[in-house]
Design brief:
Layout: H1 3-8, H2 11-20, H3 25-80, H4 82-95, H5 99-127
Helix pairs in contact: 2-3
């Protein structure tokens, strides 16, 4: 058999072939046993890794459940205190009844002042304009 055929054999097939053939038997038996040992070690390691991940995942899920329970308790506490907070807000609105009117008055005053300033600036800008260098397109003199 060629060297490529040896590489394609699984350790179990190699062991079986080694037991069947007497010339290459000891070599194939040894390679088959070593291969089976390596495969079993890899299988054991992957099983241990999987169990470790599952254990870590279980711990993470437990921590997430605990955090979720704490958040739920905090939300229940907020909902329970909501009626009191609404009453407090209504009381504070009654005290500040004049504040919105005051703010509205200040806003109206500022807008009126801005409009007056704009009007003054615009009128003063008209007086300073120079006449056009072109002749007028319409007769300036009224007709009799």
């Amino acid at each position: 058999m060629s060297a490529q055929a040896d590489h394609r054999l699984t350790p179990r097939e190699r062991l079986a072939r080694g037991l069947a053939y007497t010339a290459l038997g000891p070599v194939d038996v040894t390679r088959g046993i070593v291969g089976l040992g390596v495969h079993s070690a890899q299988s054991t390691a992957s099983g241990l890794r999987r169990r470790y991940r599952e254990g870590r995942l279980a711990r993470e899920i437990g921590a997430a459940q605990e955090t979720l329970a704490q958040e739920l308790a905090a939300a229940q506490q907020v909902v329970a205190s909501l009626p009191q907070a609404l009453q407090d807000a209504r009381r504070s609105q009654r005290r500040h009844g004049k504040r919105p009117l005051l703010i509205a008055g200040v806003v109206v005053g500022v807008l009126a002042g801005g409009a007056a300033a704009f009007s003054i600036v615009r009128r003063s800008g008209r007086r300073r304009t120079e006449p056009s260098p072109r002749p007028p397109s319409v007769d300036v003199q009224p007709r009799p």
